[in-house]
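Notes from hallway chat w/ T.B., transcribed later so I don't forget. T.B. wanted the structure written out for a chain they're using in a teaching module, and asked if we could keep both sequence and structure tokens in one place. Agreed to drop them here.
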Amino acid sequence: MNNNSINSPAEAIEANINGGVVKANLPLGKMILLGILAGAFIAIGGASSNVAVHSLSDVGLARTLAGVIFPVGLMMIVLVGGELFTGNCLIIMGVLDKKVTWLQMARNLCIVYLSNLVGSLIIDALIFYSGQYDYTSGLLGAYTIKVALAKATISPLKGFTSGIMCNILVCVAILAAAAAKDATGKIWAIFFPILAFVASGYEHCVANMYYIPAGMFAASNPAYVAKAEEAYGIMAQQCEALSVGGMIQNLIPVTLGNIVGGSLCLGVLCFCIYRINWNKKAK
């Protein structure tokens, strides 16, 4: 492909592999800070999309609008910097290319995962204490509870399979952004796959690090709990599912699904397509 505005798929894979080597060798402090930054950016995207859709009753319209807003999180990561757990699942291509070890990949994913959580929790606290959930007479707080409750009570099978679908699309967005050579191209490359994942309602572990604690914060305010009962029929007892246990119940299957979707379904597949010499004759 000779188009000067875009890299070929093979070139994008090569760039991602080289980028994965850099990620795997980041100094610990820098890796943590970049992970916190990415978690915060994704949380901002999630919070902003909630504001945009909280008063809409049409589910399809609400999800589509949320999908239009949410991609800003990944755009900020790609353009400003950040280490995102779901995108870093593609480091597996560097492992298969023997430029990264399995231990280096595991180290990166574990540290970035926990750092993403810290970044998300920081934004959770800032938004709660900013009073944003008071919008529309507390309806935003009630909506935040509703979203978090749906995630905290999802079945493991749904969380796992939805997580697979989510990270296929997230990693497609990352590879597509690597194919683009300018900021405008990267923005559009990110926009459509992330729109598809959000509109489809798939589960993203880092986004859920924002959504579920946000619901926990909101549920600590009796006014938001009362509004959730009034608007959505959610009883106060149901809000008990918004807990650390409920969060873990969501994150385990969703995280595993994200790993399978990003590493196996996309990373391994792309490596096999673009890095294996299919023209080599068997001896």
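Follow-up for T.B.: The chain has one domain: 9-273. Might be a good example for the class.
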